[in-house]
Amino acid sequence: MFTQGMWGKLLAGMLCAVFAAFGIAGTATAKVVKVDLDARITNVEVAPGVKMRAWTFNDSVPAPVVRATVGDTVEVTLTNSDMGSQMKCPKSLSKKQKKRKSKKQVRKYNKKRKNCIAKKHQHMGMAHSVDFHAAKIAPDKAFRSVLPGDSITFSFEAKKAGVFMYHCGTGPMLEHIGMGMYGMIVIDPVVPRPAAKEIFIVQSEFYGKVKNGWLKSSYEAMQTEPPKYVTFNGTAMKYANDPIEVGVGEPVRLYFVDAGPSIFSSFHVVGSWFDEYQHDGNIDEPLHDVSTQVIGPGGGGVFEFTLPEAGRYPFVTHSMLDMDKGAVGFFQAG
Ligand SMILES: [Cu+2]
């Protein structure tokens, strides 16, 4: 789970280096937060016993949580290591070879070759990019696509406290996000939020059919079918099988992003309500005493709440069809 202790490890894992202070407007301790993202194809578990060949940043779906403070400069380097597979397909038959085979054999051979070429095309390295919703910046420059083997570096100032999505912005975005290229960035206010147990949840969905323990995802399935799985942090039923422990009465702060690509979340904790909800993590205009909050694809929010007594509290998207597809977990209090 993405708890406070965990995100430190994740940041270390993505080689996030924090540089010495150099004084950006408004903060004496502003720093450069270096974020290295590597676009790679990796096998991930999208449901218990079900894997998918995902398109990832840093081998993880969702990608690691990035964290900075208002006034910091976030320096992002995206490297595209998606070089595709080196599949070799059968060559076309010469006239001589055709003569030695029956018509049926030739048809079979040609079909095999055609399928191989289609598969090879699917697995060829492709362009990727990264779009940070926490940035105010010309997207055609900073968020431009990078070809396999290339990289790009851009910087933006963390101007607004909150919780935001980042994702691959290369078209078709439905496919690049649906295949797993997204994560969360948290921008902390200069005056830190009060101490609380911090939890980081990204809701997202996966499409396709399962065969022999593999989800065969496709752009077509994303366009035409309902999702197969709706998940919190990339795996259906993840926290139903491994509940998150919370102290009774302990202040909890849950950072949430709905990565989609297309399904809205209706986030709710059974047996409690949110003392405070900050849309996009905006600390200036919070809502109070919210039972269920809709967050659309690409959006985020911060939920603050406590659990009143010992027990097991489900957290869900209250869109029941999606909950049944895996977007349910438990907090274990006490
Ligand atoms: Cu991409």
Summarize the structure in words.
This protein has 334 residues and is of the alpha+beta class. The protein has one domain (32-84, 125-333): Cupredoxins -  blue copper proteins (Immunoglobulin-like). The chain is built from eight helices and 22 strands. The protein has helices at 4-13, 95-100, 103-122, 139-142, 173-178, 219-224, 238-241, 320-323, and strands at residues 2-3, 32-47, 50-57, 66-69, 73-80, 131-132, 151-157, 162-167, 182-188, 197-206, 209-211, 214-216, 229-232, 244-246, 252-260, 265-269, 274-279, 287-290, 292-295, 300-305, 311-317, 328-333. Strands 1, 10, 13, 15, 17, 18 and 20 form a seven-stranded mixed sheet that branches. Strands 14-22-21-16-19 form a five-stranded mixed sheet. β17 and β18 (287-290) form a beta hairpin. The radius of gyration is 22 Å and the shape is globular. The protein starts with a strand and ends with a strand. The site of copper (II) ion has 6 residues, from loops.
Task: Output the keywords.
single chain, alpha+beta, Immunoglobulin-like, seven-stranded mixed β-sheet, 8 helices, 18% helix, 39% strand, disordered N terminus
Gist of the model:
The protein has a single domain, classed as Cupredoxins -  blue copper proteins (Immunoglobulin-like).
